[in-house]
Amino acid sequence: MSDIVLISDPRVTSLPVAECGEPLSDVRGRLRVDGRLADDAGAYAHLREGVLARLEDAQALLPAGCHIVVVEGYRPLALQRKYFEDYKDELRATFPEMSPEELHSAASRYVSPIEVAPHTAGAAVDLTLCDDDGVEFDMGTAVNDNPEESDGACYTDAPDISADARQNRKILSTALETAGLVNYPTEWWHWSYGDRYWAMTTGAEAAVYGPVDF
After folding, report:
1. Chain-centroid distance, C-alpha 132
2. Are the CB atoms for 175 and 58 separated by under 8 Å?
3. Phi, psi of 175 (to 5 degrees)
4. Beta pairing, strands 182-183 & 24-26
5. Is 61 helix (H, G, I), strand (E, B) or coil?
């Protein structure tokens, strides 16, 4: 896992954005949505239409009795900034020897810095899988378990997870990759399309989605 490119890496942050102007679309009524991170405005349940359409394609590729569950899509800029700074504060308290640069990089394993965050563009989605009754599959960790509390098991290719969890991650990854999304390898649940990390991963010249207001 040492060759993972973090989202704070200049290979990602230096890529331009050629904003296409595509609107945000409501996921509710099109895919299953979990309300654990719901906000009053419903922003969490919105994604760029191109991302949502690809998730629907991925859903069609999943085995019977297996469903995508969207946990969080669009995230307002202020909330993204809060998530990043709060996590950086946690790391600073745990690892006081870290320099500001090291803290910034370490925090980006789990939360994107505001200047490059794909959730604020409606380009990223945190998700999991469930059965017909809504019971979530064993994925090895909960959605949003950070590297410290999961002992690294949140990394998509983490070796120390059960065979069932590994198989479920493979089912999820195969469908989403086939539909054109890319994974952030430190978070098995985080997938995106059209953002800078997608551009870096696929070799695109630019991202097509930049920060957008809800």
Report:
1. 23
2. yes
3. -65, -45
4. unpaired
5. helix
pTM (2 d.p.): 0.92
Quick check: 124 and 73 in contact, CB under 8 A? yes
Which residue matches tokens 């504060």?
A: 89
What is the pLDDT, as a whole number, of residue 1? 47
Question: pLDDT under 50 in the chain at which residues?
Answer: 1
Strand 24-26 and strand 67-72: the pairing is unpaired
8 Å CB contact between 177 and 54: no
> Six-digit token pair at 165?
């969890």
Task: Give the CA count within 13 Å in the CB-facing half-sphere of 65.
Answer: 3
C-alpha of 211 from chain center:
15
What's the pLDDT at 186?
A: 95
What pLDDT does residue 2 have? 53
Write down how long the chain is: 214
Predicted confidence at residue 207, as pLDDT, reads 98
- SS3 annotation, 46-81: EEEHHHHHHHHHHHHHCCCCCEEEEEECCCCHHHHH
Phi, psi of 93 (to 5 degrees): -70, -35
CA distance 185 to 201: 11
CA distances in angstroms from 96 to 46, 70, 101, 108, 112, listed in the order given: 37, 35, 13, 17, 21
pLDDT one-digit tens code per residue, 138-178: 999 999 999 989 999 999 999 999 999 999 999 999 999 99
